[in-house]
Records
---
Amino acid sequence: MNIRFVLRAGERGFSRLVSTGVNATYVAGHPDGVITRHSSFNFHEYQSGIAGFGHIRVFGDEVFSPGGTGYNMHPHHNFIIAAFVLGGALTHVNTIGKVDELRAGDYYVFSAGSGGKHAELNIGQEDLSVIYLWVLPGKLLAPPSYVRSHFDTKVGADRIVCLVGDEAGALPIGQTIKVSRLVTGRSGTPVYRSSPAHGVYVFVLEGEAGIAGTVLGRRDSMALSGEERIEIAARSGTDLLLVETAL
Amino acid sequence: MKKYLCLGCGFSYDEARGLPEHGLAPGTRWADIPEDWICPDCGTPKSGFEMVEIPYWSQA
């Protein structure tokens, strides 16, 4: 087992974005609106951490306060951006022409390709908790696309479910990337099967999981490579994401 | 000729194509772009770009 890094929750980059001052046009919401962002990899002003892993460049654990807080319409190219809503409601608007609302368990894959803008807003009355994953594309300037789906924690409990990637029922993505989720109702040791040529980034959303002798708590993460079998000793009530990437 | 990607927004710069609309002629090397140049879309500094070897979709 080749452990590439272990990143504790408190070691991640942290940004607190408000809708006034320098970010007044970028950050939506009333003057008390706040976005908090914990970054697993270097992003924007946070540049003292890990640059990325395989095709992954951004893994943001974000909370938007209620009342219209979020990111106003802004441009992208090329990056494939996926959002996984953990709680609250996310209103996503993009220039492909899609206006969408996503709630806990919902997720999307937005490929900016040759150019697209999007807005990400919390117009609800409670905090929005969302994970943003950005990956490099397999091709530059592809036609932009948007697809979305839902993960049902009841149906998907106690097994590893592929959300994004080249598997039946998963959202397609134009890159060698696979995103899976494990939610446990009981303790157990499920096995994630990976290509030994790939790396796997494991991020614990809730609970506790032991992998390769390392115990990961809430919002801890680690990256591994060169493994065909990754045993995950997960406690009851654990919720985690696995992102497999070509290296 | 190399390609560079903005890690702030994904904007891509291709040395072969340049950015004539922003005053960079086709063939302008990355090294010859001023250090204070920023991403025309999002303002990320030049140091926030990464060299990539990704083919264009249109060449697929």
Note: The longest strand of chain B covers residues 3-6.
---
Amino acid sequence: MTTLIIAEHDGQTVKDATRKTLTAALAIGGDIHVLVAGHTVGAAATAARRLAGVGKVLVADDASLAHDLAEPLAALIVALAPAYDAILAPSNAVTKSALPRAAALLDVMQVSDIIAVVAPDTFERPTYAGNAIETVRSSDALKLITVRTASFKATADGTGEAVVDAIAVAPVTSFSRFVGEHLTESSRPELAAARVVVSGGRALASAENFNAVLTPLADRLGAAIGASRAAVDAGYAPNDWQVGQTGKAVSPDLYIAVGISGAIQHIAGMKDSKVIVAINKDEEAPIFQVADYGIVGDLFEIVPALTKALG
Amino acid sequence: MKILVPVKRVVDYNIKVHVKADGSGVDLANVKMSMNPFDEIAVEEALRLREAGKASEIIAVSIGPDKAQDTLRTALAMGADRGILIKTDATVEPLAVAKLLKAVVAAEAPGLVILGKQAIDDDCNQTGQMLAALLGWPQATFASKVVIDGTAAEVTREVDGGLQTVAVNLPAVITADLRLNEPRYASLPNIMKAKKKPIAISSPADFGVDITPRLTVLKTADPKARKAGIRVGSVDELIAKLKTEAEVL
């Protein structure tokens, strides 16, 4: 059998999410190819050659793929599908949008957000905000799968012997058109891949506090900054910082939850973290039920003290 | 322009579900059920578009058991004009839901379908994309802002890294994200009025759609539990624990 992985990349390098998806693909077994789709992605394709255990890198380099729109990417996946038994993608905003579109065109029921491979046709996936883990077996001949990367370790890179194949991209009738984007500028590690995440909740009480209290600690730890849904809804943090059922799922070595009560849907996105620290003034807050270390107290005193003590 | 809003009856978002001891699923007996919160946002957006003069009629459609009529009544009480229930007690996967919705679209010819990006029970995040594919329509997922201008919609989408804006020609499928709007509460008079609004009831067989699941759920289990840890009394104690015990600093 042959599996195709849709790479997550930034045009230059291959993201760790791709290496984590590769771990899931290796568990399924068989030959593995990687698709690098986008516009001017030559460097990323070269990086993909070094992925361990990958036999072939398919490069689809076309202006129509520049903005990760769902329709052209889905059409490309549909065109490539006949050669594969399984197509895996890291679960991200691009694949969440494009892969179900491809699945419907291929008459396949996608398996979303797998957290374990039980057998080549059987997977574990979370439902009900992670409160129930279903083991599902797919009866479709072709498997289309998104992978919750927080649940898999990244592979180490190999020696770079994969063959590179340029793929012709057929023109797609115009569907959605790119108008613009507003991306959060940040020199911090990416939330989904960071080793340490400092996350803030509604108790920060304003965007100014959110920034003033959490940024120094995150800087000190080289951490990404996350947020609860409540903090994002209140406008304290941008939408793409949201950790939870409908935001990002993260699994850092250290997750520091500051002023986050611990709603079910938030815990769904961070409970795979290795070590969880909770700082909250409410000692009954549910976050303490999943935290390895908890401090009950005023975050406005504790966080600056912690930052200072870390020197 | 008609707007079609698919709505799903799911376990209420405040309920923490429990896995049945025999692993056959989650226990939904006597559990409060509500409209999927993302679908509520979709209903609200449709209502706002009608209030802005961009839409003439809002049709709510649900696929599910007889009780899904309650969910449709919620949509009608919020302000939708009429409901369609495709009644089945079976589990209907997103692919089959999309096929049924495609048939409803063929019958109703809406200019826009707007629905929640994800249902909070199966957490699949597929139905809107699949429907757009089957219809050959453009899609704009994870919408946090929708502006309809004549025959096109400009949609701001929540993506990794920030926001992306796309334009789609209508008809199109839009899926609603959390921050698109805050849904209204239905007023008592509107709840009373909703009881008189029509709900047409049909079955999947009426549309000739095979809803046999492609995925077999072999078992349902509790997630790996995290043990509650310890309380530390000071920042210094915390740092010491993180260094020597947890070894993450």
Note: The longest strand of chain A covers residues 31-38.
